[in-house]
Amino acid sequence: MDSSSQLSLPQNLDSVRVTGLPYGAFYISDFITEEEEILILNKIASAPKPRWKQLSRRRLQTWPSDLVNNKLIDAPLPSWLQEPVIPRLQSLHLGRGEQLSHIFSDSPHKRPNHVLINEYPPGIGIMPHKDGAAYHPVVCTVSLGASICLNIHQTKDDGTLDKHPVTRILQEPRSLLITTGDLYTEYLHGIDDIMEDDGLSEETIANWSLLRSQSMFRTGQNLRQTRTSLTYRDVISVSKLGNKLGLFGHKK
Fold first, then answer.
1. Is the peptide bond before 84 cis (omega within 30 degrees of 0)?
2. DSSP strands (E only) in 99-175
3. Is residue 189 pLDDT above 60, yes or no?
4. From CA 55, how far away is CA 20, in angstroms rounded?
């Protein structure tokens, strides 16, 4: 399934850093191929029905399982969520002169061990939020199917949410967005419940210069279609399968 020869991945993340934001955002417009995108979407669609968790207006899958008390039961990810994404993530070096360090080098398991699959129909988003302390502070999001705008928010001095985003990041299909550092710990991210992203321009989109095709958004608009995201993270605390009963609070 690996078709990396068709892609031109950066040798290090310096060249794909999203400028104008706190250090810690990187965007690669072509991280997987169209063929790989189709294969992954087909795998998601063919997953057993119990894999889907139905929310009020959208649905999601968690692999290999949900967290319980911020812990993950130790289990491998399915092969279609490992290849080709995880080897490519581990090939992304942090910067020049750091050829032995990749984005998960400092995480407990040196690789992501959890994937959240979110399906966003047109008009459906997610409230601004932080990912929390259960994860190592590196988030890698692969977008499938369609483009969507991610809003970046701050809190006010009184601790309440500032509803006006600091900026927006446009995520194209087959792209990879990496967030870490202050952007992970200090800022919130969310998606508006709208049918169309508008006001798109170099002035309003932080990663405009890194987009695959700026001309696609020359009207300043993006009509929403169903977009699916794969969120790769390393859960810090992992419980071995033999300790599963203890994880749920029962005697071993």
1. yes
2. 114-120, 126-129, 138-144, 148-153, 167-171
3. yes
4. 34
